Amino acid sequence: MNWHAKQTARWGAGALAIAMVAGGGGYWLGQHGSASEAGSAQPARKVLYWYDPMVPAEHYDNPNSLSSMGMKTIPKYADEGSATNAAPGVNIDPAARQNLGLRVVAAEMGTLPSSLTVTGTIDFNQRNVAVVQARTGGFVTRVYGRAPGDVIGAGTPIADVQLPEWGGAQGEFLAVRRLGRPDLTTAARQRLRLMGMPESLIAQVERTGRTNGTVTITSPIGGVIQTLDARSGVTLAPGQTLAQVTGIGTVWLNAAVPEAQTGAVKIGQNASVTLAAFPGESFTGRVIAILPTTQAESRTLTVRIELANRAGRLRPGMFASVALGDGGGQALLVPSEAVIRTGARTLVMLALPDGRYRPAEVRTGREGGGKTEIVAGLAPGEKIVASGQFLLDSEASLTGVAARPIGGDK
Question: Which whole number is the average pLDDT over 171-179?
Answer without folding.
Answer: 92
